[in-house]
Amino acid sequence: MRGSPGRQAGFSLLELSIVLGIMAMLAVAAVPRYMEEINRNRSRVTTENTQAILDAARAYRLSKGTWPGGASCINAISEMVSQSPAMLPPGLDVNKYNNTVSTSCTAWTFSVDQSIVEDWDGVLANNLPGTSIVNASQNRIRSTIGIPGSETANDAKLSRVAEQNVELNRMRTNLLLGNNDIKEVGRIEAVNAAISGLAEASQLRVNGVSQFNGEGTFQDGISLQKVVQENTSCPKTGAIARSSTGVILSCQSGII
């Protein structure tokens, strides 16, 4: 059936309004999911970048004995970027929420501060160890680490670097090395030493009483420094000494 000559093809205003309304509802439903996905990706990358900064600061402290970035650590990120080789890639001074990442420190701790967005500050605080919300109105979080070896998770471990808290360098139980060697030792201070095998030393000095239960072999001379007078009393039978002229004397029945 032919239409009237004055009728035009296409959508009516009502039909167009319905289509636009449906598209608007679809867009309204999709935008929150789209924004959530964006923030989820931002959160993941921000977590990784923050952890990278903390790990680099910990490595810097282990290597140099101080936190990076001067006394207050305000320039920590740029200093770690400038190391050769670089400890961090450039660009981590601004997070994925386009907010500045700042650093600070005390003698014992190193901290990273940054602002996130609403509702996602708590997500990062849960994902990053040692992180808390320090300013809820600004969605600002702070991630803090202690001197390597001083964190709660490591307080039962022995630190290999000198610590202000000497307990972190002190063993509180037996040290078992599985028959492995100890090398590069400067000085050993001990109450007792039990050695079942060979003990080698270029010089041996004993300040107290010594006892040898087995045979002794000396490849060189023995110098007696105990000087006594002949025909005097002596405390122990078998003890030997010398006279002032070098004659070797022995204690026999209490007389030397």
UniProtKB/TrEMBL annotation:
It comes from the Bacteria. The keyword Transmembrane helix applies. PROSITE patterns: PROKAR_NTER_METHYL. The chain crosses the membrane at residues 12-35. Gene3D superfamilies: Glycoprotein, Type 4 Pilin (3.30.700.10). InterPro entries: N_methyl_site, Pilin-like. Keywords: Membrane, Plasmid, Transmembrane, Transmembrane helix. The keyword Disulfide bond does not apply. This is Prepilin-type N-terminal cleavage/methylation domain-containing protein.
